[in-house]
Amino acid sequence: MPDFRTPRSKVIGLGAAHSGVGHFIGQRVSAIALFFLLPVFLVALALNSGSLAEAHAFVANPLGAILTLATLTAAIYHMRLGVQVVVEDYIHKPGTKLVLLVANTLLCAGLWIAVLYSVLRIAA
């Protein structure tokens, strides 16, 4: 396979980071998971949430808790990967990019911890 890099880039070691495929697969897997989970979650929630007590009972049910955790885990992971791509593509200052990527990861981790805590609190 021909190498299209310039002689200078070969010397300083610039080239592909070799991490794009894992990111691509993660986005596709989470999108496929959401394609199946989200409609099931929304229909189940709509059928079981006429009131706050019914929504509480839905999440307290083991299947409802598992469905809620699986759906929101896939959604938060997919969101994190999507925002990461936007930041990497459109933010060019290295310091700003680093701050935004760390903030994105921490925000998504915080959201997931809040979801996990809430579901476990209701289900217990």
UniProtKB/TrEMBL annotation:
The keyword Flavoprotein does not apply. GO terms for cellular component: membrane. It comes from the Bacteria. GO terms for molecular function: heme binding; metal ion binding. InterPro entries: SQR/QFR_C/D, Succ_DH_anchor, SuccDH_FuR_B_TM-su. Its main location: membrane. It is a multi-pass membrane protein. The chain crosses the membrane at residues 29-47, 59-78, 98-120. Part of an enzyme complex containing four subunits: a flavoprotein, an iron-sulfur protein, plus two membrane-anchoring proteins, SdhC and SdhD. Membrane-anchoring subunit of succinate dehydrogenase (SDH). This is Succinate dehydrogenase hydrophobic membrane anchor subunit. It comes from Marinicauda algicola. The gene is sdhD.
